[in-house]
Amino acid sequence: MVEGLKKTPTGIRGFDFIADGGLPQGRTVLVAGSAGSGKTVFATQFLAAGVQVEGENGVFVTFEEHPKDLRRNMVSFGWDIPTLEAEGKWAFVDASPEPAQEVEIIGDYDFGALLARIEHAAHSVGAKRIVLDSIGCVFSHFPNLSRVRYELFRIASALREMNLTAVLTAERTDEYGDIARYGVEEFVADSVVILRNVLEDEKRRRTIEILKLRGTTHRKGEYPFTVIPYEGIIVIPLSAIELKQRSANVRVTSGNPDLDRMCGGGLFRDSIILISGATGTGKTLMVTHFVSGAAASGERCLLLAYEESREQLGRNAIGWGVDFDSLEKQGKLKVVCEYPESASLEDHVIHIKEQIDSFKPTRVAIDSVSALERISTIRGFREFVLAVTSFIKHKEITGLFTATTPTLTGGSSVTETHISSITDTIILLRYVELYGEMRRGVTVLKMRGSPHEKEIRELSIDHTGMHIGAPFRNVAGILAGNPVQIAVAEMERLDQLFTSVGS
Amino acid sequence: MSKYTLKLYIAGRTARTKQAISTLRQICEEELGRTYELAVIDILERPQLAENEKILATPTLVKELPPPLRRVVGDLSNRERLLVGLDLAVSDSPRHESGD
By the 8 A CB rule, do A63 and A138 touch? Predict the structure, then answer.
């Protein structure tokens, strides 16, 4: 029986997941991308993580940047290349251009010298990994395209013979055009990874796509990634793990007994609850109840706020009888307030995950997810919600998200449209205009795996928080944003319409 | 005439290498007489030297002295262009005037 291709974990967070374990061992992968798409970072991280995480030494063949610049540029990612070099775990082969020197080409030539240097470096550190960054540059040094292509092909086969897992980077001119310039993919056709940096609605979006990994499986499509200090590239796998989550029948309190009753006895522990409503309908109040409910049952809650400052939140909570400061002191609550524009959505995902990993809450509230909508494209936003949701569910955490609707009396927001299918429970908060007075209504629109009340009940707010009252009996059209009062006689007639059939 | 120091980097003894060596020897004898030093360095034996000198392609001829430093890549099959490349051309090239 033929043994399957072994894979080498790259050590790049998230990438090994979409590559189903890593890159094919001893093979060559072409990493293509436009300028600024992160090719050199990917390549360097592949080597650095190889040494630091997988214990595999590496060789960096640079055709573009001088090793001196690389050493300096990569410090910010926490990769101390000079130390690795001193320890004999990393070697450079410097093929960067010498600006002061012009080279005359007379007659035929080959890349025997380069190959000898690569072999020498690989032997000297006992390399398992190698990077050639970027091979397109060779074509600009040497004008004979077919000669260069042939020589690179020779080098690529030599790498395979040495059983080195290789990353070759190449430039692309077009985000959705040819794989790479100069037709370089022809000689490394084994595997191709594409890095993109696309401008969409005036926002930059980085994605990574594995086009092919010959002889092995991988996940299809573009995945967002981000580049952050002290870590480098982090690929954000989306819903891929979503369907594997267990779902428990354990119920937790929403912090309000009436709401628990409406939800058939409480919220499910590892579920995502979306609270949607116009501004001032009581979303942040529900979050506050969620926090105090968690604390009362000995749970820890992480509150991620993107709309209000810590002081504002604290003041509001005091107004409803909940003391955030003392809950924080007891370690039952952590409030993180951030301005949505302070980072990209991908960075927010990473940050949220870090907060969850360090604080280890059993509940997470995000107030509001729709505030994050404005810093991204619709697609990017959907991916963000998917990433956060699947992470939260994976950790068996209860997640409460709020979303602000654009109009006062109802309607749906972009957030709702795009994430409602991802959430397990949707609670709507709506203004109801009755006899010239604004009142609030609350209803449970859906709740997966549980019966729930279908009525729209009145919600009132006082200094002790929120109270859920009787259902609006004689009003129709609340959710449509157009409440109409129905006369009592008409209601009786409607009641009979349904009861008389069965009796 | 100042002394010439030339280094020819090769990767093994291939036909291309032999061609380059013989062309170079011939030109040196004819144009430089005894005033030259030619070292042939096989990179397969001494890869670190190629690393230090950043040699990429083979054969590569480096003219270390007299200045300016020059590099010529290839099998040196074009005599006229090699003479220009080594600042030995008798034609009225500006390089020649400054080098003499």
Answer: yes
What does the mean pLDDT of chain A come to?
85
Residue A53 three-state SS: coil
Low-confidence residues in chain A, pLDDT < 70: 1-4, 100, 184-189, 238-248, 408-418, 480-481, 488, 491, 494, 498-503
How many residues are listed for chain B in this entry?
100
**Does an H or E element contain A157, and which?**
helix A145-161
Chain B interface disruption, residue of A60, A94, A104, A144, most B CBs within 10 A: A104
Domains A7-239 and A251-497 fall in the same CATH topology: yes
Which pLDDT score is estimated for B99?
A: 41
Which CATH number applies to A7-239: 3.40.50.300, 3.40.50.1220, 3.40.50.1000, 3.40.30.10? 3.40.50.300
Could A112 and B20 be called an inter-chain contact, meaning their C-beta atoms sit closer than 8 Å? no
Q: Cα–Cα distance between A44 and A40 in angstroms, integer?
A: 6
Helix (H, G, I), strand (E, B) or coil at A35: coil
User: What value of ipTM does the predicted structure carry?
Assistant: 0.85
Optimal mutation site among B43, B56, B78, B83, interface A, most CBs of chain A within 10 A: B56
CATH topology classification for A251-497: Rossmann fold (3.40.50)
pLDDT tens for each residue of A467-496:
998 888 777 777 766 777 777 677 677 677
Q: Where are the domains of chain A?
A: 7-239, 251-497
